[in-house]
Amino acid sequence: MAKIKHNNFLDTVNEVFTDAMQEGVLHLYAEGTEFSGRTIEVKNKKLFHFGTTGYLGLEQDPRLKDAAISAIKKFGTQFPLSKSYISNPLYRQLEERVTEMYNCPVIITKNSTLGHLGVIPSAVKDQDAIILDHQVHWSVQSAAKVLKNRSVPIDMIRHNNINMLEDKIKSLSNTRKRIWYMADGIYSMYGDFAPIQDLKSLSLKYPQLHLYYDDVHGMSWVGKNGTGYVLSELKELSENILLFGTLSKTFGASGAVLVCSNKKMYKEIKTFGGPLTFSAQLEPASVAAATASAEIHLTDEICELQKELRERIGYFNDLLEQTDLPLVDKNTSPVFYIGTGMPKTGYNFVNRLMKEGFYVNLGIFPAVPVKNTGVRITISRHNQKAEIKGLAEAMEYHFPKALEDTHTDTRRVYQAFNLKTKATGKDKRNPKLTLRMEDTISKVDKAVWDKLMGKDGVFDWEGLKFLEQTFCHNSKKEHNWDFRYIIINDQEQRPILATFLTLAYWKDDMLASAGLSKTIEGERKTDPYYLTSKVLSMGSLFTEGDHLFIDKKHPLKQDALNALIQTLEQLEQHHKSKMTVLRDFKADTYFHTYFQGQGFVRVKMPDSCDIDLDGFKDIEGFIANLSSRNRRHVRREILAIEPLLHIETLKTCNPDQLEQVQELYHNVHQNNLGLNMFAFPKKLFDNMSAHPNWEFITVSERAHPEKIIGVMLCYNNNDHTYVPAFIGMDYEYLEEFYTYRQLLYQTIKRAFDLNMKKIALGMTASFEKRKLGASVEEKYAYIQTSDNYTLELMGILETS
């Protein structure tokens, strides 16, 4: 069978970023001939700057500027030698000053990203293991992945989940020498802190635990000598801790610093640390500026600078306290995050603030889950109280307007971030709409449903009744689904929108690569529900096709879609599902723009294949219409083999036949990790055999007709669509009899016998289906998750 094309993560990120760029809130260019730090010029407008990471404003300090200028004049723009050979004359003084700050040995690196790439593979040995906080910075995750080449196990916990971390430590303690937990000191998006004291206690309880902190956002503005948040909590650095700080951001210069009190480990890393050895060293200007900053850090002046910033942070916190703005994490860091929920609300809010004269950052996927889009605000010493107050007032005024513009409300935003709120706003549904939701197809008029949704696949009225009867009262939870049927009408009771939903357990790697699924299936041998989630899905795992009816010409179509999205959110909240999936969409600009703005990311599904039988009287005429190359393919690999086979269409199966059918289906299921799903229950095959709309096209050797070597499980849709829903094969006979191709041909032949208008061949193996006249169409799903944990965990587990 043909290889399934999988969604490329970078394609998804590119789509999200492109959308934000088109809205004018990302990939902007600063303008003007100078920069003060207090304001920034964008699009010919001077804005108060609330997006800096230079929290103390040291990058504008005259002492740092003068040092950098002097260094360029004396030593040039760069010192083009590896530090392994010889360091710039200014380096020794910088290392001495930073060592004095920390009272520990330090290593200066070009930047934190290269630093992590140099340090982590050196510090972590083959006998060790790594556990990542799922919100630890990308640069740490990327460096940790290098260790997979040495078979070092890498795992991940949900953000700041100490109980989960302890469970992981216990599971690794008997097989691994050291267990490294890697986290940020302060997280860059929400500005929340790592639980340093809890982690210290855990390391005392489990001596194998070593801690690796990236504290670049905690640097300078807190701690003795500005050595950061982590050290301000720990007071001293024990030998089981590696700490990264930065010489850029708040420090005001460039570069990064590793602090290591373990002398043996320090020597190993400093002697040979990959990029630390082979990358260019810091430019003389950066070294000199960093030295000037370090000298400030070593005086009492740093305490005054920190105090000034704390006052501004406290002032902004007090102002926010008087509003209903959804501050995601209230603390004392200079990073604030105001949730907007949907991306389009975030775009609107950022643009409104820019028009008012304030520059803020947009927090967007993949840094945060798409539905956790928001505005990231940073407070620095550059900001004066007047503009801080002005920003708070502008946000309080424009936030509800941004919500109104994008048809949402405060309650939905708070719900997206799991924040407590006094807001009790009701859904803002258009009163001209009537939404009806039922939990069984039996409560929906058959003629109405089939007119709207019954033209495609196994989800006409009869097909859904069959699915309800099959996926209930089963022993395994993945075989029990909840169904919801939604129809939205206008005031004249004309349908605008219709769909059906299922709540079911999915494998999180369903659309991942086969290599990743193989890795995950290894874990499922001992934990069958590892990386599985309750999913709210349009359609179901059993059905393929157009699961959404919408009257695109109706003036209230977008109001109907808004009502659907709000209903999905309510169902997700009530049933505690981890993911919402809208399935099987064509490359439609309208839906793409709408769903992405609502907080969904688009992923590529396997291509879908259909055959239109209109205009053909019989199979011979259909084959004659194929290309000459494909006609030769049919003659040589199908028609020439057909006389050797026993072909039979069974309306019902005896127990022996059903057992064979189920075994053949499981062969294909186990072989198809590219579309990794739970196997269906035996009850399904029993119900198919008893249902008048289902039949089995079987293939056997003519000499042994009792032994089935291939089967196509087909549904007769009431609108004259033939649906070969699933296939089963004995792979031992696949090459000898071209079983898959024979089954496709016999399916087309059977559809002609039944006077069908169309064959819905479904997804996967589009290359083979195209040979037999199928038209192939790209299909997409839109996915929204409660957080990025599973996505990032699968990213570190990926092996191919």
Automatic annotation (TrEMBL):
A Pfam cross-reference name: FemAB_like
> What molecular functions are annotated in GO for this chain?
pyridoxal phosphate binding; transaminase activity
The answer, when asked if Cytoplasm is one of the entry's keywords, is: no
Note the InterPro entries from the entry.
Acyl_CoA_acyltransferase (IPR016181), Aminotransferase_I/II_large (IPR004839), AON_synthase_class-II (IPR050087), FemAB-like (IPR007434), PyrdxlP-dep_Trfase (IPR015424), PyrdxlP-dep_Trfase_major (IPR015421), PyrdxlP-dep_Trfase_small (IPR015422)
Per its UniProt record, the required cofactor names are: pyridoxal 5'-phosphate
Q: Which SUPFAM superfamilies match?
A: Acyl-CoA N-acyltransferases (Nat), PLP-dependent transferases
* Annotated keywords: Aminotransferase, Transferase
Q: Does the keyword Transferase apply?
A: yes
Q: Please give the superkingdom of this protein's source.
A: Bacteria
List residues of the Aminotransferase class I/classII large domain. Answer: 48-385
What PANTHER family does the database record attribute to this sequence? CLASS II AMINOTRANSFERASE/8-AMINO-7-OXONONANOATE SYNTHASE
Please report the name of this protein according to its UniProt entry.
Aminotransferase class I/II-fold pyridoxal phosphate-dependent enzyme
